[in-house]
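Hi V.,

Quick status before I head out on leave. The structure for the redesign project is tokenized and pasted below; the design run finished overnight.
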């Protein structure tokens, strides 16, 4: 049998994981973060119209979000792979505040609007990655949630196993 790639968190049940402070904070942040980001994305053209941009100009500016969403997806993946997860997640979760401040002070400036949309696009690309990064499938086929990171051996985090290799729920997650 090959050696296991990760160590399970001892004594942590699924119930204790769901009640843990990091999980609750991540869930709350995700529930606030996603609707705000999607709401801004969906209403960007009318928001820009309210600042005096024409329909074509507003749509052109709003289309920048797609380009920056790709950058957000790739950039966030890189950051999550190479930097501690918590500070990266917090920074990304706070970016919609920057978007709101930029839009609030836009006053018809195309450059300010483009900056806000670029940041919003980056956030939209990063949205699912930050939350989903904590869920992993091991090389053994088991599914787990990352509980903590190993600062010395970065590729061996502590995890809570949720399913066995056959994808059946673990009776007692370890």
């Amino acid at each position: 049998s090959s050696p296991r790639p990760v160590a399970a968190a001892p004594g942590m049940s699924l119930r204790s994981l769901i009640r843990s402070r990091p999980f609750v904070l991540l869930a709350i942040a995700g529930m606030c973060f996603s609707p705000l980001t999607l709401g801004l994305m969906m209403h960007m053209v009318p928001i820009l119209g309210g600042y005096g941009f024409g329909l074509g100009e507003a749509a052109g500016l709003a289309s920048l979000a797609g380009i920056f969403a790709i950058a957000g997806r790739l950039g966030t993946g890189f950051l999550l792979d190479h930097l501690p997860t918590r500070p990266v997640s917090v920074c990304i979760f706070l970016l919609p505040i920057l978007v709101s401040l930029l839009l609030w002070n836009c006053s018809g400036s195309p450059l300010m609007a483009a900056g806000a949309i670029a940041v919003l696009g980056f956030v939209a690309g990063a949205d699912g990655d930050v939350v989903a990064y904590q869920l992993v499938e091991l090389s053994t086929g088991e599914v787990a949630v990352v509980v903590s990171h190993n600062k010395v051996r970065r590729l061996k985090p502590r995890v809570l196993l949720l399913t066995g290799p056959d994808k059946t729920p673990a009776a007692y997650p370890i």
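Above is the designed sequence. Confidence is low (pLDDT under 50) at residues 5-10.

G. will cover questions while I'm gone.

Best,
W.
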